[in-house]
Automatic annotation (TrEMBL), chains A, B, C, D:
It comes from Paenibacillus lacisoli. InterPro entries: Class_I_gatase-like, ThuA-like, Trehalose_catabolism_ThuA_prok. This is ThuA domain-containing protein. Residues 3-218 form the ThuA-like domain. It comes from the Bacteria. SUPFAM superfamilies: Class I glutamine amidotransferase-like. Pfam families: ThuA.
Length: 242, 242, 242, 242
């Protein structure tokens, strides 16, 4: 059983009719429904809940956290953002979706601006697998076609990912590193590009399949807690510790 | 001509006799002398100067910044630390030495705790090259022996480096990823482990050779400024921008 | 159920008493016994069997192949070596143990000499985890101590590994990248250093734990077969194919 | 002064009028002219010369070898292919252009099939920089537009590159990792995608700029020759060598 928490700022869906018509109960609800049924225990949390729904109790029982935010990044408190980043370093899996590239926890974990080019013009995106051995590609076709998506274009200002899993081609001529893995401390991070709020991307089965795979991949290993600080030698050598 | 600024907190050397005896005019002065003569224009800056010696004027004319700090990390202002990190993202090379692993700018750029094991016991460190093609190893022997150094041991909580250049063996049984490269934005970062303040490490010619090579490597490329934000298609496709 | 085939040249154990006393029925038998009981279906194969025990029938039903060889690398036929490398590219997991670094299939897959330093002097090896998030480290302590092992030292002439999982410290002062992952085509490869034939390394529980984890990690993903060669456009653009 | 040898199979240009009209004296001549004037001493070599023009004397005085081949890969002798690969491992820089992805030396060094998708339909290729800090991008715009090129599409069956520098977008919807670095032994390798024989790609200034940068990058470091084989301990520990 993997405990999954889906965090969504849940603002667009309340105030923009175009978004509401695609995700009437919120992106988080569509994701929760779509990801169901693989031994995941799924909860959701949103910005306007106390502590943005990310209390210690919730985080203590979260193996993998999904994050979707866009227009309200600044309304996430610094304290909660710092706590989420710290939990990731401590081993919680973290799957950052689409415009979450500019979220506070992701930027803290990357150490870069996470900036990019963008355009909303209903164009076609084709996502190609460049790492077919990766468990995130398990059972996924070598390409995923999204008929209408927002464009994100390089240069995407992130550190070189540990593993590059997907690259997108956009009709207007751009490319984008659309599936990237990172580790920070004991935590595994997957950034996955698709999911503009005005397109029904999160209903598309291949997209959900990738996210399901990513949840399993990001599930923390049961590793011994790392030791830090002043240490006795493993192999005595006659030296005197100061 | 590469403009190099060597930043040193310059505290130990004033208050600890043991350190003063090794670096009477400060670590920065020993480094400045030792790195001289390769077409570098070298300046130094220290904590107690206004803006820690890192004014906009200084940073504007710095190609590569070296950083040594230890007991006074917290006395570096958040503002200056943020500015240094931002300059690195903008292209300034950044060479972080030894206990600089815990400095504010390095931690911001890494996104991790940067924690490690340590021990001061005068033990032998042997630094091995694991990437002999790398320009930082140019003309450097396949191993560097430091007769007495502080131990730093794994797990070193950094992101997986882009390139691993050196690994250290310590007498007490530990290993350490002692030479690591990263990029953040347009900037190149090299972390180099040696240099505890009570040992004459920065007088050792091989250590200085590595740092000289790293300065040349970290010198920023003359790249076109990256474009971000809303973008017209490169290849028109009949879509309508929203 | 993962189908595992353990390949051992099985020569030392027949002709060297010192080895026979440690592995009386062969290294492969000790490994097969030690790895049992995790949903693995384990078979063994040895050099002196027809086709070295690696018939198409055996390879067709192998998910992950383990390889131990040393004094008889040259007696492995080029044909079988090429076939094994091809199967790895096709998705078969491949775990190369200790002196297998010089085996024909591994050298073909790496494209390098795979040379290294070595010394048999009964010295202590300490293996440190440098990637605690990795599934190969799952449940493994942050260090593994082998009281007596052969030394392997850097520079280890391999391509930069995709992931560096373990680094060893040897008593004589060397270091070694002891746990390295690679992919080739659809196949996942793990090189794991320990296991000199005169030491009881493959009876040590932590070593077996790492190999069990590696088997699970190397198990091929169920990916769509990649397409190669002449391709129609996904997105018609009015061009004429020549 | 960097000694550059440009190797071209030089077959298309003699027998296909369409190619001859673009490169009347051969691709190698166009490249030699275009790359001139940066402190390079440039020679060319072709398939029909004795030893394909790659005698020991030529290789002994080559710092960086460029390779273009396509229809005659099989006519390169195994002996010369092996020698070239061995020289690369020994430190010679190696820049593999376009259809050289299927050349014998490149495949030996990669250990994979190096297969890909392709299509000749005169479509537009846009090459994007994804690593603006890299010296191969020095002074290169963030995108290069080639109005007419052959399509190469993912999955490109290579090992994960050490550094990914460029990604291409093709009009028909594909993407490709167009600029990839690798190291093998002491040698640096750069694969650069563009250059189909029927298009005037190698006259385009940005393409030549990238290749010039790559030559400088691939120039071997002056590293101490690596030691391999049986080794005395650096740090005596009382063990007895067997």
């Amino acid at each position: 059983m993997i405990n999954v928490t889906i965090w969504n700022e849940f603002v667009h869906e309340k105030i923009h009719d175009e978004v509401k018509s695609v995700y009437p109960e919120g992106l988080h609800k569509a994701l929760a429904d779509g990801l169901n049924g693989e031994g995941f225990a799924i909860r959701t949390a949103t910005l306007d809940q106390p502590e943005h729904g990310l209390t210690d109790e919730v985080l203590d029982s979260t193996d993998v956290l999904l994050w979707w935010g866009h227009m309200a990044h600044d309304r996430v408190s610094d304290e909660i953002a710092a706590k989420v980043a710290e939990r990731v370093r401590g081993g919680m899996g973290f799957i950052v979706l689409h415009s979450g590239h500019f979220s506070k926890p992701f930027k803290r974990l990357m150490g870069t601006s996470c900036d990019l080019k963008w355009r909303v013009a209903g164009e076609q995106e084709i996502i190609w697998t460049v790492n077919p051995t990766h468990p995130i590609c398990d059972g996924v076709d070598s390409r995923i076609i999204l008929e209408h998506e927002e464009m994100y274009g390089e240069f995407f200002d992130i550190p070189a990912p540990d593993e590059l899993v997907f690259i997108s081609n956009f009709q207007g001529g751009e490319v984008f590193r659309s599936g990237c893995t990172f580790t920070r401390g004991a935590g595994k991070i997957f950034y996955f590009r698709p999911g503009h709020e005005t397109y029904p991307t999160y209903y598309q089965p291949e997209v959900l399949k990738v996210i399901r795979n990513a949840i399993k991949w990001a599930h923390p290993a049961r590793n011994a807690k790392q030791q830090f600080g002043k240490s006795e030698p493993v192999r005595p050598f006659g030296g005197v510790l100061v």
